[in-house]
Amino acid sequence: MSEGDESAALTELAKRRGFFFGSSEAYGGVGGFYTYGPQGAALKSNVEEAWRERFAVQEGNLEIEAPTIMPEPVFEASGHLDGFDDMLVECAECGESHRADHLIEDNSELEDAETLSPEEAAEKIADLGLVCPTCGADLAGQSVEDFNLMFETNIGPGSSTPGYLRPETAQGIFVEFPRIKEYARNSLPFGVTQVGRAYRNEISPRKSIVRTREFTQAELEHFIDPERDEADLSAVEDVEVLLYPATEQEADDGDYVETTIGEAVEDGVIGNAWLGYFLGIAQEWYETVGVDMDRFRFRQHLAGERAHYSSDCWDAESEVDGDWIEIAGFSYRSDYDLSKHGEYGDDDFTVFQQYDEPKTVERAVVDPDMATLGPEFGAQAADVAEALETLAERDPDAFDADEVTLDIDGEEVTVDTDVANFSVETQTEAGEHITPHVVEPSFGIDRTVYTLLAHAYETDEVDGEARSYLSLSPSVAPTNVGVFPLVSNVDELVDLADDVAEELRAAGFAVVYDDSGSIGRRYRRQDEVGTPFCITIDRDGLEGDGANTVTIRERDSGKQVRLPVDDLVGTLVGLRAGTASFDDVLDDNEVVEA
């Protein structure tokens, strides 16, 4: 398909077959909000469960579900109030708002326009002669402003508390860390996962469910002691990956790096072993759920793209319709988040790490004479005492002088050192309180769903007729099995079909029962929504040597095989789990000509 055709075909199929469609269409719709239909909701749920199984269950991580609305101080601490912005340019003619960096990227070869300052973006718009996509008016000379993406709300009536819809699920994990660490027995490393909704008031939502104002994230916050906890790469060191490092992006002749996780970490291409570990897991997971690995890469953030707290960050990107879209981010967030909440919150965001053996250390301490500080400094006395303690930790030699100078809210004050009662004590310590560092894999579920649909969309010809189908992995397909009685007016066929459908549902399969229309038409309907297998009950399965058998048809190849009803559940369990292939089934049973 040519560029543009893939998205158009996918959007049409999604709406017609119930994967997703614009919300509130009866009231004119509103940009950036989508409803998942029966097929899409099932596919999305399966993707979430597949993620949960791999990143929560198999990794032994905890899972929580935090509120989607949080009070304003949370986002003041996290930095979202001041720095969670995109660049907005407004058309003077029609008043439409557009995201400036997207306009620049869509009309130039620049791929990282978000790294520009608002002033640089405005200059670039003028240099490129860009016009408003809505009305065609010239945008040169229009200012580019930072626009905060959070949705604001009020919590409670009357003089209510200001709050915001969370722009990421991560803050719900960080804020609850003081309690969650107790569930993890204060033992690092440990991970906490969350799958849930997030909200961003996007300037210009686009490409259906790729950029929306309400979306689902699956995030893992992995807490480590950076001095003691090392990633074990043995499980992923041989995983092959396609990397696009920052150095290659900036080079005139830059290219991809095809390597393994182990080699990339050893060579310093991936500078952090924990990031390498999660990139390796993600590579295997994406392949399992059906992402086309020929259209997949990991791209390292350029310096200007990284958040100020992130020492390194990689995006998992998929190619759809000629564009690369971010579907996950992997960031080393250091101790920024817990330190900030420890500074602003009223709880302990550290973990006590016990030493292997107790250590004897010398500590500089003060015991300020409050009877002297109180009358001299009044309301500032407690601040002065705290400043003396901080100075003793940072610069104990300062107390060799007769007096020390302190900064109290921008004002310099002096205190006699004998009032501080400074001393150096020998102490035995069993451990220390540390603020854990965080490694964060963050997955966009909606973008993953879009990628799976785009990569699964295929067309071919069957029996002289054009066919479109979704080659979805059996592990995430919204419907696992279609059950068809060949005709609907033979009681024995209908009864056996009913029994087969009931047995498969009892075994945990999502089953669609269809007795309407020709068998070919029924196959086409299921092919188009990605149902991997169809079971047909015909007369041959009731009579003679083939008694009590059914045919099972594989979606992609259209091949069919006859097997006993008693073997059906076990066969489908293996096919869905990937422990058996349809070729194995063909080898072991009677092949049926289509």
TrEMBL record:
The keyword Transferase does not apply. It comes from the Archaea. It holds the Pfam family tRNA-synt_2b. Its main location: cytoplasm. The keyword Nucleotide-binding applies. Belongs to the class-II aminoacyl-tRNA synthetase family. One of its GO terms (biological process) is glycyl-tRNA aminoacylation. It comes from Haloferax denitrificans ATCC 35960. Residues 5-474 form the Aminoacyl-transfer RNA synthetases class-II family profile domain. Its EC number is 6.1.1.14. Keywords: Aminoacyl-tRNA synthetase, ATP-binding, Ligase, Nucleotide-binding, Protein biosynthesis. It is found in: Cytoplasm. One of its GO terms (molecular function) is glycine-tRNA ligase activity. This is glycine--tRNA ligase. GO terms for cellular component: cytoplasm. SUPFAM superfamilies: Class II aaRS ABD-related (SSF52954), Class II aaRS and biotin synthetases (SSF55681).
